[in-house]
TrEMBL record:
Keywords for the protein's UniProt record, in alphabetical order: Cell outer membrane, Ion transport, Iron, Iron transport, Membrane, Receptor, Signal, TonB box, Transmembrane, Transmembrane beta strand, Transport
GO cellular component: cell outer membrane
Record's bilayer topology term: Multi-pass membrane protein
Domain of life per record: Bacteria
Protein name: TonB-dependent siderophore receptor
Recorded GO MF terms: siderophore uptake transmembrane transporter activity; signaling receptor activity
PROSITE patterns, A to Z: TONB_DEPENDENT_REC_3
Database matches in CDD domains: ligand_gated_channel
Gene3D superfamilies assigned to the protein according to its UniProt record, in alphabetical order: 3.55.50.30, TonB-dependent receptor, beta-barrel domain (2.40.170.20), TonB-dependent receptor, plug domain (2.170.130.10)
Annotated signal peptide: 1-34
Similarity field: Belongs to the TonB-dependent receptor family.
GO biological process: siderophore transport
Length: 837
């Protein structure tokens, strides 16, 4: 928990900034050491080694639970003598600041302001979104840098003390880039390939979104709990997005070894926040948002926040639309100084999800244009009267925290969510006419499905010392229950569409499921349910500059399926139980000049509920990872550099059974190894930069399966080829990105800024035997923003912004299968006017 500075010039921080300024203006800074009586009498045990003053103050803040507020430049290159013993916070601060030339003021029992002795306190501009960002591990971050997180350990921990890779998309980054969904927000995240399905889905953020981490499918979490929503993840409702790379089963249960994505919802802020915006863009996009947070009681112990959005737009593909109306209200009640409760609710109504069910196009005309006319991105490959997808999504969340003492805290979070989706669409069934590749075969489908889930996490955590070793421990248990009733009706015959002349016809297929109708429809009607419970523990040990983490978890998983097949006229019932123990260990050593090398080992567990064509249940997916890396936090600067090398083995990796359609096959072991580099930097108050490079070599390692290569030009199948040693398809080996935002100094032109980004995605392979290669592509993003109030006082708080992705409107393919490919998103332009007061 590093201290921070506060912008008293921004509207949302008015009351807190005024409070701090008034508290210090009336006292001589040198002599203003008087703490409130309650604080002076509160004696605690401290064990803080000598070293950089910034690190010592961080340790003091964690131990005492006191928030420090100061300009980060004050502690730059300053040492601290450290301290050890039992004393009051005032006595501890006096010793830590010895010889620093700094003084302190207690503004209340939990807040301290630091300043140079004999000078007034000047508070600098680092506020984002209405909270003191550096102090909140689930908050918006500061600029492009967030230093603390809950995601990796379920405790408030500095990224420098966590022995694995965690990359955070801050609120400021989202504001500058203007992503329209979570997939777009992750474009610049290290080790994450977020748009493997291209323009397939705009509204989707949860399951089936195609996000890959280190070569494996990622799970999505909201506020630390797995989300089963079809429509969650609205970016205007988020404070931050975190990519936890590597196995995370110890803290979260069933997960792939590549990692997980977790999102933090907006919650009431400590200071008032009032914001409205109007947006517009190409493809007939119009949007309005509201974000208001304020006090309910005069003391501020009860606060509220309401965020809302209304959105309508077309897509790059004809006849595909996206519409959403959503609201996110929340209330926080600080019951006393040690107890707080937050209630959050949300409702999303998305009558058009923006999903393009016909987004898979043949290779010839997309990937291959030698002798074939290019298929336009505007081409709607499907049936116009089977082109409806709607979702209703509701959620309620409860968060409770109580601090018994510095040795013991209690936390509890519960979320209930339900989604209802109705689809009438058509899908590419894989049939190919080799003589006329522009013809695509589509099959109408009607789906009605819902998901309802309850997730619950209860944990105790605290701190204690054993001699010179400080421990931060957590013990907890979580569970989740999920029901997924579905009805899926698929027509018996195909509809053929010419993609060069897509006269998508209105068809009325026979979709009656009753036996007397005579319709030979496929599909099923049934429910899949599961229940998972886990018990976990973790100890973060710190001795001088060495941090060691050790944790373990036991998981129990039970699922049941009850379905009725329309084609076979038969009912199927199954019940599955699986269990596993996962663990992790790691160490980090922090040098006083900001470098922190680390090493870790972790395992993962993902239960399987599918069977092979013979009805045999697949064993659980089990993964293990070795990771070594370095993190470097430039002393006194908001610059964080990371480097990581890893090797992941996952056993029982599942692929599609090419012989028995609709079933999976066990591909044995897949190995992913590579390295990642990243930089997050607030270089100056006017320049922010993020950059990343990812290399992932993901191959079938132990595999005795064979498949036939497919010729993309002719569609013909070749000889049987062994899968062992081949690259796993649809995963790029190389990815590179850089994004910078620069605000022109006020001495030149007040309020004007620009940003620019580059994204490179390397080549991928199609099919499990590398049938053919999909080329790499480079995309450019640009933007501009202008603070109208910088030059015109009457317009104070009004800001205009423009963001453009894929500036050159490049035509590119993101991934391919045997006979079809996904197209990427063309040039997208989005502008908005935002007013803060």
């Amino acid at each position: 928990m590093f201290p921070t500075t506060i912008d008293h010039r921004k509207g949302g921080l008015g009351s807190l900034a005024a409070c701090l300024l008034l508290a210090t203006a009336c006292l001589p800074p040198v002599a203003a050491h008087a703490a409130p009586a309650a604080q002076a009498a509160s004696r605690q045990s401290y064990n803080i080694p000598a070293g950089p003053l910034a690190i010592a103050l961080n340790r003091f803040s964690e131990t005492s639970n006191i928030q420090l507020v100061y300009d980060a430049s004050l502690t730059r290159n300053l040492p601290s003598p450290g301290l050890r013993g039992t004393m009051t916070p005032a006595e501890a601060l006096s010793r830590l600041l010895t010889g620093s030339g700094l003084s302190y003021n207690f503004t209340d029992g939990r807040t301290v302001v630091l300043a140079r002795a004999g000078s007034a306190i000047t508070l600098g501009p680092v506020r984002v979104g209405g909270t003191v960002a550096r102090q909140d591990p689930t908050g918006p971050g500061v600029g492009y840098v967030a230093e603390n997180t809950m995601a990796g350990t379920k405790t408030n921990t500095s990224l420098m003390e966590i022995p694995n890779s965690i990359h955070i998309v801050t609120k400021q980054q989202m504001q500058d880039q203007q992503p329209q969904n979570v997939l777009e927000a992750l474009r610049y995240s290290t080790g994450v390939y977020s748009e493997s399905f291209g323009s397939f889905s705009v509204g989707a953020a949860m399951g089936g979104s195609g996000i890959k981490q280190r070569g494996f499918a990622a799970s999505e979490y909201v506020d630390g709990l797995l989300s089963t929503s079809y429509a969650a993840g609205e970016t205007s409702f988020l404070e931050r997005i975190e990519a936890v790379n590597g196995p995370a089963s110890v803290m979260y249960g069933q997960n792939a070894p590549g990692g997980l994505i977790t999102m933090s919802l907006k919650k009431p802020t400590a200071t008032p926040l009032h914001q409205v915006s109007l947006g517009f863009g190409n493809w007939n996009r119009y949007e309005a948002t509201v974000d208001v947070s304020d006090r309910v009681t005069k003391s501020g112990n009860v606060r509220y926040r309401i965020a809302a959005i209304g959105n309508t737009q077309d897509q790059q593909t004809d006849y595909v639309h996206y519409q959403r109306v959503a609201v996110l209200p929340s209330v926080t009640w600080d019951i006393d100084r040690d107890t707080s409760m937050t209630l959050i609710g949300s409702y999303n109504y998305t009558p058009d999800t923006g999903t393009n069910p016909g987004a898979q196009y043949p290779q010839r005309g997309t990937l291959i244009t030698d002798g074939y006319r290019r298929i336009s991105r505007h081409t709607f490959a499907g049936l116009r009267n089977f082109n409806e997808q709607s979702v209703k999504d509701a959620m309620f969340e409860y968060q409770f925290q109580h601090r018994f003492s510095r040795y013991l805290n209690f936390s509890q979070i519960l979320r209930w969510e339900k989604s209802i989706s109705d689809d009438r669409d058509s899908y590419d069934n894989g049939n190919v006419d080799l003589s006329r590749p522009n013809l695509q075969y589509y099959r109408p489908e009607i789906r009605a499905y819902s998901s309802e889930g309850v997730a619950f996490d209860t944990r105790f955590d605290g701190r204690f010392d054993t001699g010179p070793v400080a421990h931060t421990w957590v013990v907890g248990s979580d569970f989740r229950h999920y029901d997924n009733p579905q009805k899926n009706v698929i027509a018996a015959s195909d509809v053929i569409i010419d993609l060069y002349d897509p006269q998508a016809t209105h068809v009325t297929p026979c979709m009656d499921t009753s036996p007397s109708s005579g319709c030979r429809v496929r599909g099923y009607d049934g429910t899949w349910s599961y229940f998972q419970e886990g018990v976990y523990f973790q100890d973060q040990m710190k001795w001088k500059r060495l941090s060691v983490i050790l944790g373990g978890r036991e998981d129990w998983f039970n699922s049941s399926t009850n379905s009725y097949s329309y084609l076979a006229r038969s009912r199927r019932q199954t019940s599955i139980s699986q269990a596993a123990f996962t663990w992790r260990a790691g160490l980090v050593y922090q040098f006083d000049f900001g470098l922190a090398p680390y090493f870790s080992y972790a395992t993962s567990f993902t239960p399987q509920t599918s069977t092979d064509w013979q009805g045999k249940l697949f064993p659980p997916l089990s993964g293990k990872q070795l990771e070594a890396g370095m993190k470097y936090k430039v002393p006194g600067r908001d610059i964080l550099l990371t480097a990581a090398a890893y090797r992941i083995d996952e056993d029982h990796y599942l692929i599609s059974d090419l012989i028995h359609t609709g079933y999976s096959d066990d591909a044995g072991r897949v190995r992913s190894q590579g390295f990642e580099l990243s930089a997050n930097a607030n270089v100056t108050k006017d320049l922010r930069v993020i950059a990343s490079y990812s290399f992932a070599d993901v191959r079938f390692n132990k595999n005795n399966l064979f498949a036939r290569k497919t010729d993309p030009y002719t569609g013909a199948s070749g000889a049987l080829t062994a899968e062992a040693g081949k690259f796993v398809p649809q995963i790029p080996r190389n990815m590179f990105s850089v994004f910078a935002d620069y605000t022109i100094p006020s001495t030149i032109m007040k309020g004007l800024g620009f940003n620019w980004g580059l994204r490179y995605v390397g080549s991928t392979y199609a099919t499990n035997v590398e049938s053919y290669k999909i080329p790499s592509y480079i995309l450019f993003d640009v933007g501009a923003h202008y603070d109208l109030g910088a030059t015109t006082p009457l317009l104070r708080g009004l800001k205009a912004q423009l963001a453009m992705s894929n500036l050159t409107n490049a035509y590119y393919v993101t991934a391919c299968g045997n006979f079809s490919c996904y197209l990427g998103q063309g040039r997208r332009v989005y502008g908005n006017l935002t007013y803060n007061w």
